[in-house]
Write a structure and sequence with these properties.
45% of the residues lie in helices and 11% in strands. The strands form two sheets. It has a seven-stranded parallel β-sheet. Strands 2-3 form a two-stranded antiparallel ribbon. It has a single domain (5-343), classed as TIM Barrel, CATH 3.20.20. It has helices at 5-10, 31-37, 42-46, 49-63, 76-80, 117-130, 144-153, 161-169, 171-194, 212-230, 248-252, 267-273, 292-306, 326-339, and strands at residues 68-69, 85-88, 92-95, 137-142, 199-203, 237-240, 258-260, 279-283, 312-316. It has 14 helices and nine strands. The structure holds coproporphyrinogen III. Coproporphyrinogen III is lined by residues 23-28, 42, 69, 71-74, 87, 89-93, 140, 156, 203, 205, 319.
């Protein structure tokens, strides 16, 4: 069977059409997700492989996207080692006892495969189902800095005041924290590929809160170590963050195959900033809220910016917003498949 177009585009190869998938495609914008999911923490849904696999497949069936993303969350490995994480609906990850001192390093023990059998079983089930359409599954993890921001702040934050204080007041401890997160992240990613994930995305969602100096000193080395430690697996890797326009050149040096571009940066400018490696993005998720016609118009703007160079994976510039009408995303998939001819000779 041919290599899926998504994987070809990740490697910068010529493709028959521009592949498309959506960050947060499996989630609250889908009525079938809400129907299945019920109430309770998302972590409970993730701990049920049959349910999590089904949710992973829902957007593939509905939209015919070119890749599935595992239904999971960036805090799953930390929940699995008992760090004391919950995900509060409408708010995000909340930590009962945030990371504060060297004593807390002991709470970040190595991740064992036995801790994440629910995740690897979900991967196995989803991959089996996806084989029929040769649709690749993307595995993922949070990048060390973004995960650290949750573990240290204890809850979603706007100003990143606590983590920046730790970073600058005790850089040695902060580095030790990042070292632990690198280890856990690598184990988590390798396990997903071992069970059939064919690409990996690292979400450094909040890297955009850092200055270039901070990114270079703290986030970049940790991110690079993660990519180095999965390089032998031979699967394409994607690095994504929000508000990272000023960091894209640095992020691009971390070693991913593909760079995610958020919606703040025009895709053509983003491509130049990442040294013309394959790019993923970058439709503003808010432009999908006004119905099909407006979403299609906005998608065409992104396609025009992308030009016809190979190495474009169409995506949003961040996750699908819960209020998005699925028909608008379906219309985006259609226009990308029909009109996105990047890399066609
Ligand atoms: O993309 C997908 O469809 C796969 C599933 C996925 C989820 N979380 C499921 C989820 C992925 C890739 C993530 C990654 C994730 N989780 C990130 C990185 C991506 C990004 O958005 O920048 C981050 C920062 C988190 C942490 C997190 N988990 C937040 C901020 C929230 C939102 C809280 C809310 O309710 O608005 C969550 C919860 C979460 N993770 C939901 C989903 C579908 C929604 C809550 C639910 O359904 O109960």
């Amino acid at each position: 069977m041919n290599d899926p177009v998504f994987l070809q585009a990740c490697r910068g190869e010529q493709v028959s059409h521009v592949p498309v998938w959506f960050m947060r495609q499996a989630g609250r914008s889908l009525p079938e997700y809400r129907a299945l999911r019920g109430s309770g923490s998302i972590l409970e849904a993730i701990s049920d492989p049959a349910l999590a696999s089904e949710i992973t497949l829902q957007p593939v069936r509905r939209y015919g996207v070119d890749a599935a993303i595992l239904f999971s969350d960036i805090v799953v490995p930390y929940h699995a080692i008992g760090f004391g994480v919950d995900v509060v609906p409408g708010r995000g990850p909340v930590i009962a006892a945030p990371f504060q001192s060297a004593d807390d390093l002991a709470r970040l023990r190595d991740l064992e495969l036995a801790d994440i059998t629910h995740v690897t079983e979900t991967v196995t089930l989803a991959v089996k189902e996806l084989a029929a359409t040769n649709t690749p599954l993307i595995g993922f993890a949070g990048a060390p800095f973004t995960v650290a921001s949750y573990l240290v702040e204890g809850a979603p934050t706007r100003d990143f005041a606590v983590i920046k204080s730790l970073m600058h007041q005790d850089p040695v401890l902060f580095q030790l924290l990042l070292d632990r997160l690198v280890e856990i992240t690598v184990t988590f990613l390798r396990a997903q590929v071992a069970h059939g994930a064919r690409a990996l995305q690292l979400f450094d969602s909040w890297a955009g809160s850092l200055t270039r100096d901070e990114y270079q000193r703290f986030a970049l080395p940790a991110t690079r170590r993660v990519f180095d430690a999965v390089a032998d697996l031979g699967v394409p890797t994607i690095l994504f963050g929000v508000g990272t326009g000023e960091l894209l050149d640095l992020m691009s040096s971390a070693g991913s195959t593909v760079m995610g571009i958020d919606w703040h940066v025009d895709l053509d400018a983003g491509r130049r900033r990442v040294g013309h490696k394959p790019v993923q993005g970058n439709l503003d998720p808010a432009r999908c809220l006004g119905g099909e016609a407006l979403a299609v118009e906005a998608a065409r703007e992104v396609l025009a910016r992308a030009g016809r160079d190979a190495g474009h994976i169409f995506n949003l510039g961040h996750g699908v917003l819960p209020a998005t009408d699925p028909d608008a995303l379906a219309a985006v998939v259609q226009v990308v498949h029909d009109e996105g001819k990047a890399g066609v000779r």
